[in-house]
Specification:
- This protein is globular.
- It contains five helices and no strands.
- It has 109 residues and is an all-alpha fold.
- 63% of the residues lie in helices and 0% in strands.
- The longest helix is centred in the last third of the chain and has 22 residues.
Amino acid sequence: MYGLDGSYSAAVHFLRGCDFGNDFALLRGFREWLLVRLGYNSSLDWSALCLRLAFEVEKSGQTADPVSVEQHKRAVDTLFALVDEFLTDARDPHKLAAMYREYQSLATH
């Protein structure tokens, strides 16, 4: 893609720009969806949560930024796969409602 250099940070900035251009509606609920996927609550931003999923970081583990070309590729591929899956789920009002119920139970524990 034009403007993307293969780095995770460039992909994150690209998605943030797309979200901004859509009045922050494109990724609304993405962070909550990721937390449900992880199975625990966290104060981390969605970009850090995606890294946790990409590198299978445990709840108590430290999330590190990708360093090597291979790590960036894995992080970017995971990010876009997660966004694609989220956008598919977000189109289904039943899945979206179920996700928010699960998120609410995470947030209250």
